[in-house]
Amino acid sequence: MTASLFTPLTLRETELPNRVMLSPMCQYSAEDGLATDWHLVHLGSRAVGGAGVVMTEATAVSPEGRISPGDLGIWSDDHADALRDIAAFVRERGSVPAIQLAHAGRKASKSRPWEGSAPISEDDGGWETLAPSPEPYPYDGGETAATREMSADDVDQFVEDFRAAAERALDAGFEIAEVHAAHGYLLHEFLSPVTNRREDDYGGSFENRTRLVREVTAAVREVWPDDKPVFVRISATDWLDDRESWDLDQSARLAPLLAEAGADLIDVSAGGIHPDQEVPEAGPGYQVPYAERVNEATDAAVGAVGGITEAEQADQIVRNGSADVAVVGREFLRNPYFGLEAAHELGEDVEWPAQYRRGTFD
Ligand code: FNR
């Protein structure tokens, strides 16, 4: 039988009630990395609104891994406690609570978008950023914080930070852990020759550049229970064909290695490594072909993201076998009930919350 958007998907022993996933989206509304009421309302609304998986924004595994001072974090037990009620609420609504674990690498220490997304220097309350190589991200003007090339000890600590973060996330009640290896943040910086100029075991060859993401995935998998899935988000390409860079061929080669390391779903995004990137027209489903290619290369499930805004379109992505899950970002910012409305449009028998039934279609 051909699967559709509302066919449940079982990954390990975790059942996703449908294949609509809320894409991770920073809210810049945490306090010292701690989740606030905003996160409960934002994530809770998307669970009420019918997302099968509710993924938190990038949640930093260490303080210096935050993009901005407003990012979520999970580097202490207090941080896990602040997320506990959110995970429970999402689960009570029948959605699967998921957390994206992240480190921003050299793209850390920036102000919130509504404050300009500008680099914050150490003098202005910013912090030293970590990266595979010491070049800072080439921002257009503005003084950046210093970027430190990670030592062997830093690399070991980084893997341990991911492992500890996953343990805390599990304790907080999350059922899916996603490793953020996309968008020019730290793990992507190791993958891409644009940012990785190391000469040790973590730089140079494909095997070396992919070592850290494989180690991190394996570390998360070690602490994540056998019945629960691990996802990895990658950038399928740097969109920098004019130079040696990370591309779709390497992503297709990486996907089965991530599956071997313990990933159950590859969430396929793109870009973010360098401002010279040539982003194609961001029209409907603009990254779906990348998901298709990765899907051909691995037995793991695959998520497609980017310009998915319509029920029919999301349904086709699943029906065509392009991907197993439709990951929806900005449309969910506009419409928290995208999941329920998609079900209605597609003629699926999905119940609205009892509290809202008098406002529904029949
Ligand atoms: C994002 N995106 C993003 N991606 C990610 O992996 N972790 C994150 O924390 C964020 N944060 C974020 C914040 C905001 C406000 C936006 C709009 C986007 C990228 C997002 O998950 C998604 O991949 C893109 O927005 C493309 O999908 P849509 O929006 O076209 O459905």
TrEMBL record:
The keyword Nucleotidyltransferase does not apply. GO terms for molecular function: FMN binding; NADP binding; NADPH dehydrogenase activity. Keywords: Flavoprotein, FMN, NADP, Oxidoreductase. InterPro entries: Aldolase_TIM (IPR013785), OxRdtase_FMN_N (IPR001155), YqjM-like (IPR044152). Residues 107-128 are annotated as: Disordered. Its cofactor is FMN. This is 2,4-dienoyl-CoA reductase. It comes from Halogeometricum limi.
